[in-house]
Amino acid sequence: MSITSSMPVLRGRGGTVLSAVRGGLVLERPGEQVMIPFRAIARVHVEACEVTVQLRAPAGTAPSVHRIEEASAAAAAAFADAVNVLLPDPVEGVDGSLLVEVRTFTRTWLQRFRRTLGRVLLGCLGGVLVLSVTNAVAGDGDAAVTGALFVAASGAMAVVGIGLGAVCVVPWFHETRRRRRGVTVVAEQVDGTGTYRYTDGAGTTRAFSHPSPAPSLQACYDPRDPSDVLVLQDRSSRLLDITLGPCFLLAGLGGIAVVVGLVVMTILGKPFL
Questions:
Q1: Which of 152, 215, 239, 250 has CB atoms 3.0–4.6 Å from 132's, for a disulfide?
Q2: What are the backbone angles phi and psi of residue 199, rounded to the nearest 5°?
Q3: pLDDT at residue 227 is higher than 90
């Protein structure tokens, strides 16, 4: 059994968890995971139920710290003693904060947009179904059924068009705004695993996943929230989005307008079929 596997796992306030793994510590907070290698740590201090992981810092600078509060006092003392024994000899000039890696699990703006768009499109499909049923009820005979099927098919195609248009246009506007107000960096892939790393303005190394074989790519993060990172598109992809997106969007909106008009005509006694 390894030394780290026998160390206690500290659980603190707000769902914070501090544990030891091979080569370092893992501090887990809601929506975030902080990897702290042993070579970045100067000392682990314990005061009652509070554990402070102090990072190495160059001479004359204040060290960065990570804390977990309201942990078990006995477990905290045992944990600190075990970690301090494993720490390597200090190296002059090392800045431990630059060795720490932060992985965020909260959704980025783009992920939240896609999730919201999916819900909106499902709602639109429900509206199309209501229009189809309304057309069937307001119509007469076989023509009513045919008209309802036509409304359903046309409305579904229109919703798909709106979805495709929104997926192209809205992220394009967001990326354009992010390019102006965000911070662009080069993110490097880690061992070909699809995980990329970048360093924010505070010197924190952050990691994110992206399905790309490229060894590096351009990413732009929000300076107010460095974990909200956006992978920038190349010029051809942006041109394709701004060209096709409005076409799909206008076609979809036009299709919905036509479907509503056809249903209204059926209700007024002037069915189109």
A1: 152
A2: -115, 125
A3: no
* Beta carbons within 10 angstroms of residue 193's beta carbon: 8
List of residues 6+ apart from 193 with CB closer than 8 A: none
* Sequence-ordered list of residues with C-beta below 8 angstroms from that of 122, at least 6 positions apart, any chain: none
Helix axes 141-181, 109-138, angle to 10 degrees: 160
Half-sphere exposure of 272 (CA within 13 A, CB side): 16
Q: 124-138 burial string, b = 16+ CB within 10 Å, else e?
A: bbeebeebbebbbeb
For residues 79 and 18, the answer to whether their CB atoms sit within 8 Å is: yes
Residue 16 buriedness (CB in 10 A; 0-12 / 13-18 / 19+)? buried
Question: Picking from 15-24, 170-179, 199-208, 213-222, which range would have the lowest pLDDT averaged per residue?
Answer: 199-208
Q: In terms of residues, how long is the chain? A: 273
Calpha distance 54→152 (Å, rounded): 63
The residue type of 243 is T
DSSP the chain: --TGGGSPPEE-GGG-EEEEETTEEEEEETTEEEEEEGGGEEEEEEETTEEEEEEP--TTSPPPEEEE-S--HHHHHHHHHHHHHHPPPP-TT--GGGT-EEEE-SPPHHHHHHHHHHHHHHHHHHHHHHHHHHHHHHS-HHHHHHHHHHHHHHHHHHHHHHHHHHHHHHHHHHHHHHHHHSEEEEEEESTTSSEEEEE-TTS-EEEEE-----SEEEEEEETTEEEEEEEPPPHHHHHHHHHHHHHHHHHHHHHHHHHHHHHHHHHTT----
